[in-house]
């Protein structure tokens, strides 16, 4: 892992929560990434996630944004979770106000992040020069409108990442000449897992297993994804009362034991690791979650010859949505946003798989070469008249 440009630690004054803001790199003074809240968050994890964001912006063809991440080690379901998030974001406000664009991530809601920004009259964090740019200001207005729109019944912002993952999956599966109606197991049924499952079922895939924080539900003939979405709660937990009689419920730890062609982790990091990587039965893993395979687990997956679409190639939908609308790369229309993400996810996935085949190498190793970010400092923003000679 390369060293991050900036690491800031926060200690809450009212609880034992700790948090970190890690900026892996800036691009023209701007950087973007989500804010995660989970009891297992560590500084090292936030550093790894920030680096993945930097790669993801390169994979998104971004010319405006570097990668950062924030993480708070705290229970996202605690009654004071919002208050903890608020104190953390307020502590980070001097950076946010200058162009550290934090959004939401696992365990936080984008509406909550925006509500806290609004207390400081910040709509979307921007650099000082972006704040003067009428095209960017129009892009923000368009983004605000699009955030309230829906596609297939889902809020557009909740669909963009999962749909992109589904398009990457489809591209990779077709590249592998996989059979029609392939079976898929998904871990996690939040924004990403649910929308990915929906789009894949629309594309003709059979979702045979889904796990959430409480359970694993399976069905060889395929689960009714729409019905599961209609009855899930805000934490992405499915409602047992609406399961069909031919569904089987097991412990969520058994998710890798289900026979399937494709596995898609859409929840936490390092969930495929030394202890369970050997039991992966599929020939393709698509990483919807960030860093869902530990480095030890990855060695096993690589050795088994399983193909992967790695995280920053598959799950860039949300950041492409943001970049493309705010910086005017796409018409502000929900279907145009999805089409743009589909094009990018398919292009990058095809590039990854064709290069891997040509060079007879593992997809992840290739991805880290193709999408390598540059880390530059912020000296270009200093006042040139105050040049300080090296001592
Ligand atoms: N939301 C986005 O646009 C986006 C973009 C890129 C990457 N990601 C990554 O995707 C992942 C999921 O994000 P999200 O926004 O869908 O989160 P979310 O909070 O909406 O949903 C998380 C899901 O994971 C489930 N879960 C938690 N612990 C679990 C366990 N032990 N076993 C099985 N399931 C478990 C929860 O029940 C829930 O269904 C995260 O790694 C996040 O960083 C999200």
TrEMBL record:
Keywords tagged on the record: Oxidoreductase
The keyword Amino-acid biosynthesis is assigned to this record: no
Keyword Oxidoreductase assigned: yes
Q: Which GO terms describe its molecular function?
A: glutamate dehydrogenase [NAD(P)+] activity
What superkingdom heads the lineage?
A: Bacteria
* Gene3D superfamilies assigned to the protein according to its UniProt record, in alphabetical order: Leucine Dehydrogenase, chain A, domain 1, NAD(P)-binding Rossmann-like Domain
Q: Outline the extent of the Glutamate/phenylalanine/leucine/valine/L-tryptophan dehydrogenase C-terminal domain.
A: 157-379
Where in the sequence is the signal peptide annotated?
none
Family under the similarity heading: Belongs to the Glu/Leu/Phe/Val dehydrogenases family.
This protein is called Glutamate dehydrogenase
Which organism is the protein's source? Virgibacillus litoralis
């Amino acid at each position: 892992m390369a060293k991050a440009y900036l690491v800031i630690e926060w200690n809450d004054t009212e609880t034992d929560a700790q948090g970190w803001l890690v900026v892996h790199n800036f691009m023209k003074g701007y950087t973007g990434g989500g804010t995660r809240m989970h009891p297992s968050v560590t500084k090292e994890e936030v550093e790894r996630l920030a680096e993945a964001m930097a790669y993801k912006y390169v994979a998104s063809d971004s010319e405006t944004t570097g990668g950062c991440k924030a993480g708070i080690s705290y229970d996202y379901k605690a009654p004071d979770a919002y208050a903890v998030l608020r104190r953390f974001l307020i502590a980070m406000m001097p950076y946010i106000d200058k162009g550290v664009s934090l959004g939401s991530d696992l365990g936080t809601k984008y509406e909550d992040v925006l509500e806290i920004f609004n207390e400081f009259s910040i709509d979307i964090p921007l650099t000082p020069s972006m704040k003067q740019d009428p095209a960017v200001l129009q892009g923000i207005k368009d983004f605000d409108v699009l955030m309230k729109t829906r596609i297939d019944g889902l809020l557009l912002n909740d669909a963009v990442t999962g749909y992109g993952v589904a398009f990457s999956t489809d591209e990779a599966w077709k590249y592998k000449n996989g059979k029609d109606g392939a079976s898929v197991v998904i871990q996690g049924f939040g924004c990403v897992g649910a929308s990915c499952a929906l789009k894949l079922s629309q594309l003709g895939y059979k979702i045979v297993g889904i796990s959430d924080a409480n359970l694993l539900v399976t069905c060889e003939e395929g689960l009714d994804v729409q019905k599961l979405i209609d009855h899930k709660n805000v934490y992405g937990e499915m409602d047992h009362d609406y399961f069909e009689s031919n569904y089987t419920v097991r412990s969520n730890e058994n998710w890798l034991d289900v026979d399937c062609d494709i596995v898609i982790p859409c929840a936490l990091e390092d969930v495929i690791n030394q202890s369970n990587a050997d039991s992966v039965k599929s020939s393709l893993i698509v990483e919807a979650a960030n860093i869902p395979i530990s480095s030890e687990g990855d060695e096993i997956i690589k050795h088994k010859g399983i193909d992967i679409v790695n995280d920053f190639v598959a799950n860039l939908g949300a950041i492409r949505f943001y970049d493309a609308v705010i910086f005017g790369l796409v018409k502000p229309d929900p279907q145009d946003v999805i089409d743009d993400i589909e094009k990018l996810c398919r292009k990058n996935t095809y590039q990854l798989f064709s290069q891997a085949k040509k060079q007879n190498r593992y997809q992840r190793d290739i991805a880290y070469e193709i999408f390598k970010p540059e880390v530059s400092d912020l000296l270009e923003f200093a006042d040139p008249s105050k040049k300080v000679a090296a001592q």
